[in-house]
Recover the amino acids of this structure.
C-alpha cells in the first residue's frame, strides 16, 4: 500500500498500533498515550465557530462571494469542502495575497448568506416555504447536496394547490419527487386553477380552427392537450426556446385526415383575413431564419429531449370565439423539455369566416376580391433599427430619437404619424446620445444625459414644436450628475420632471433629481432605497414609480414608489415584477402601469406586465411578438406602441402595438378582433375559465 493511501485510511505509519510489537513496553506506551492524549470531539465545531466569527468581522478571510450586489466573506477551504461547484470555481492553486472576489450568478443574496452560514455551523435557518424554495435553488446551483435533499424532502411534505407549481419548476428534483408532484397537480387541478397559480407560468396559446361548433366540446381535455403537445413536438426542433413558443398564438387547423397543421402552411388566397395574412407572413420569416442555422438539429438528441414532454393535468371549460359563440377551451399544465408551462387550447368557431368577414381559407375562384382593408396594412418601420433610445408621444405623433444602431451612437430623430402610417425625420439632436431617458411635459420633449459611446453625459436638451409643425432643439440647465441608463418621468400636475437612478462612476445610483422647466433649475429629491440603472420610470396614481433595472450585479424585479402628494418623503416598496429585468420599457396606459420587454441578462424578453390601481401584484399581459430589450414604449391615441429595441440578435426597426390590455400585440394598423373573451381584473372567470389570464 502506498504511503499516501496509508495516510488516507488513518494509519500513522511506523507509529501506528499495527506496526508496534506486542511486548509489555508497547502496552505501557499505549496506556501512557491513552492517559496523556486529548480526544475533544467538540474542537472542530469550536474551530469552525471561530472561523465563522472571524469572517463575519472581515478578518482573516480569503474570498468574497458576490451575489445580487452584496458580498459575503468566507474561507476558500470551507467553501470547497461543502460545495463542488465552488471547489471548481475557486481552483486548486494557493490563495492570492488579497482576498479574491467570486461572482455567483443565479443565487439570491439572502440564500447565499444562509448557505455560507450552514457551511460553518451545520444549521440552515428557514423561515417559510418561499425562503425554502430560494434556499433550494441556491443549494442546487452550488451543489450543496445535504441542504438541497433536506429541503426537497421537507417541501414535499407540505404540498398545497397554491405552491405545488412553484415546487415543480425547481431544478434537480428527484424522479420520485417529480412523480409525486405530477400526481398532486393532476388530482388538485381544479383548485390550482381557482388559486390563480397558473398565471405565474409561461403560457402556450393554441387556437384550432373549426368550421362549425358541432361536436366542438366533445373531446376529452387530456386528448386535446395531448394532440396539441404532439403537434409542438413534431413541428419544433429540439433547441426550441420555451419563451419563443409562448411569444405568439399558434393558429392551427384540422386537415381532412384529422391531423393538426399550422395555418402558416395554408396557401395564399384572395380575401384572406388580414390576421391570417400577418400570421402567414411571420411564419415565412421564422422559416427563413431556421434555414440560416449553421447545422441541422441532432435528431437523436431531439427525440431524447422531446420525449420528456408530457401533459401533467388538463381540464375543459367554455370560452368565446371572436364572434361570441361558445367554444371548447382546454387548460393544461405541460412539461416541455423539463420546463413547466401552462397551455390554453381553444376552438375558434365561425363557419370558416375570418375577421371582418374575410374567409380564413380565402375566396372561391368565382368570387370577387373584397375591397382593400386598412386593417391588413402593417405598421411602417423606422428608418433604422435602434435600441436604448429616448421616446415619447408628442402631440399626435410618436417621437424616437438617438440610441444605438449596430455601428454607432445616433443623433437622428424621427416621428411616426399613425394617420399616415409613415415615419418622417425631425431635426437631429444637438449631440449623439444613447442609453438616455426622455419624457414629455406639455408640448415639449426633454432628453437627459446618457452616453456618447465614451463617457456619461450631463447635458439636457428640449425639443419644442412650432405652429407650422416644425421644431428645434435647445439646451437647458445641466444635470447635477452625469449619468447614463437612468429613468425619467414627468409630473404633469406640478409641471416637474424627475431623473431617477442610472449609472455613473462604475456603480448603480440611488440619486434622484427634480427639474423645474419654468425655473430651469435642478434640486435633489429623496434617494432610492436600492441603487439601480437600466430601470424605467413613470408618474402614475400621483406617485413617481421606478421598475426593475440592474443593481450592478444582477437584474432586479423590485419596484419603488415615491408619493408626490406629501404622504411620504421616502420611497416605498412596490409590487415586484414577475420577472427580474433591466432595459425595460414602461408606460401608463388606460389607467394601468405597463412594463414590457427588457433583458434578463442573457436574453431579451417578450413579457408584458400590467399593474392595476391598488393591486398587490402585477399580472401577466400578452407577450410581445418580438423580444425587445431597451424598446421605445409609449401610449398614443389610446394605443400602446413598442418600437425598436434589441432582439438578442439584431437591432429592430419594426413597430408593434396593443389595442386592449387582454388582446394581443400586432404589427397591423387596426385592431384584430378578439379571439377570446377575458374577465376583467378581479372578476369571476366564466364557465370554468381561469382567472387571471396568463
Amino acid at each position: 500500500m502506498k504511503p499516501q493511501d496509508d495516510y488516507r485510511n488513518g494509519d500513522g505509519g511506523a507509529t501506528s498500533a499495527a506496526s508496534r510489537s506486542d511486548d509489555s513496553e508497547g502496552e505501557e506506551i499505549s496506556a501512557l498515550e491513552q492517559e496523556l492524549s486529548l480526544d475533544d470531539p467538540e474542537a472542530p465545531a469550536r474551530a469552525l465557530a471561530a472561523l465563522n466569527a472571524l469572517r463575519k468581522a472581515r478578518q482573516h478571510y480569503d474570498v468574497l462571494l458576490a451575489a445580487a450586489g452584496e458580498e459575503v466573506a468566507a474561507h476558500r477551504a470551507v467553501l470547497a469542502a461543502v460545495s463542488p461547484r465552488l471547489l471548481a470555481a475557486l481552483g486548486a492553486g494557493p490563495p492570492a495575497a488579497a482576498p479574491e472576489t467570486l461572482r455567483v450568478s443565479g443565487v439570491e443574496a439572502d440564500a447565499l448568506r444562509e448557505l455560507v452560514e450552514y457551511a460553518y455551523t451545520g444549521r440552515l435557518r428557514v423561515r417559510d416555504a418561499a425562503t425554502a424554495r430560494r434556499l433550494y435553488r441556491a443549494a442546487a446551483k452550488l451543489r450543496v447536496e445535504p441542504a438541497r435533499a433536506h429541503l426537497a424532502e421537507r417541501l414535499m411534505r407540505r404540498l398545497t394547490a397554491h405552491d405545488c407549481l412553484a415546487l415543480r419548476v425547481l431544478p434537480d428534483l428527484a424522479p420520485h419527487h417529480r412523480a409525486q408532484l405530477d400526481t398532486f397537480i393532476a388530482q388538485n387541478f381544479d383548485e390550482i386553477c381557482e388559486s390563480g397559480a397558473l398565471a405565474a407560468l409561461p403560457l402556450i396559446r393554441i387556437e384550432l380552427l373549426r368550421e362549425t361548433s358541432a361536436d366542438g366540446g366533445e373531446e376529452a381535455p387530456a386528448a386535446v392537450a395531448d394532440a396539441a403537445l404532439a403537434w409542438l413536438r413534431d413541428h419544433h426542433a429540439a433547441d426550441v426556446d420555451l419563451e419563443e413558443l409562448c411569444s405568439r398564438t399558434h393558429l392551427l387547423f384540422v386537415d381532412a385526415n384529422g391531423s393538426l397543421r399550422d395555418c402558416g402552411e395554408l396557401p395564399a388566397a384572395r380575401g384572406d383575413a388580414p390576421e391570417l395574412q400577418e400570421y402567414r407572413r411571420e411564419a415565412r420569416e421564422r422559416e427563413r431564419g431556421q434555414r440560416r442555422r449553421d447545422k441541422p438539429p441532432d435528431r437523436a438528441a431531439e427525440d431524447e429531449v422531446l420525449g420528456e414532454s408530457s401533459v401533467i393535468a388538463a381540464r375543459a371549460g367554455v370560452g368565446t370565439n371572436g364572434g361570441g359563440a361558445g367554444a371548447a377551451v382546454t387548460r393544461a399544465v405541460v412539461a416541455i423539455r423539463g420546463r413547466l408551462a401552462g397551455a390554453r387550447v381553444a376552438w375558434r368557431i365561425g363557419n370558416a369566416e375570418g375577421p371582418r368577414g374575410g374567409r380564413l381559407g380565402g375566396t372561391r375562384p368565382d368570387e370577387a376580391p373584397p375591397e382593400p382593408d386598412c386593417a391588413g396594412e402593417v405598421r411602417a418601420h423606422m428608418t433604422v433599427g435602434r435600441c436604448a433610445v429616448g421616446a415619447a408621444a408628442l402631440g399626435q405623433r410618436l417621437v424616437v430619437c438617438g440610441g444605438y444602431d449596430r455601428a454607432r451612437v445616433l443623433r437622428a430623430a424621427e416621428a411616426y404619424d399613425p394617420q399616415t402610417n409613415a415615419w418622417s425625420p425631425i431635426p437631429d439632436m444637438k449631440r449623439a446620445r444613447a442609453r438616455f431617458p426622455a419624457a414629455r411635459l406639455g408640448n415639449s420633449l426633454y432628453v437627459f444625459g446618457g452616453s456618447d459611446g465614451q463617457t456619461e453625459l450631463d447635458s439636457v436638451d428640449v425639443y419644442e414644436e412650432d405652429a407650422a409643425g416644425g421644431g428645434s432643439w435647445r439646451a437647458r440647465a445641466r444635470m447635477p450628475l452625469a449619468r447614463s441608463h437612468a429613468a425619467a418621468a414627468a409630473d404633469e400636475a406640478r409641471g416637474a420632471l424627475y431623473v431617477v437612478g442610472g449609472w455613473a462612476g462604475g456603480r448603480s445610483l440611488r440619486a434622484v433629481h427634480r427639474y423645474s422647466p419654468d425655473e430651469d433649475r435642478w434640486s435633489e429629491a429623496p434617494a432610492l432605497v436600492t441603487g439601480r440603472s437600466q430601470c424605467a420610470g413613470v408618474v402614475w396614481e400621483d406617485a413617481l414609480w421606478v421598475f426593475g433595472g440592474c443593481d450592478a450585479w444582477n437584474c432586479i424585479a423590485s419596484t419603488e414608489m415615491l408619493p408626490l402628494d406629501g404622504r411620504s418623503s421616502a420611497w416605498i416598496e412596490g409590487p415586484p415584477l414577475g420577472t427580474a429585468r433591466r432595459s425595460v420599457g414602461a408606460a401608463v396606459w388606460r389607467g394601468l402601469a405597463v412594463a414590457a420587454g427588457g433583458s434578463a441578462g442573457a436574453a431579451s424578453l417578450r413579457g408584458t406586465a400590467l399593474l392595476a390601481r391598488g393591486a398587490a401584484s402585477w399580472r401577466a399581459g400578452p407577450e410581445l411578438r418580438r423580444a425587445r430589450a431597451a424598446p421605445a414604449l409609449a401610449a398614443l391615441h389610446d394605443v400602446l406602441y413598442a418600437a425598436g429595441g434589441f432582439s438578442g440578435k439584431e437591432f429592430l426597426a419594426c413597430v408593434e402595438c396593443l389595442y386592449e390590455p387582454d388582446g394581443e400585440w400586432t404589427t397591423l394598423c387596426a385592431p384584430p378582433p378578439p379571439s377570446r373573451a377575458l374577465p376583467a381584473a378581479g372578476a369571476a372567470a366564466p364557465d370554468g375559465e381561469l382567472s387571471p389570464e396568463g
About this structure: The chain has a mean pLDDT of 79. The chain has four domains: 3-36, 43-158, 201-376, 390-658.
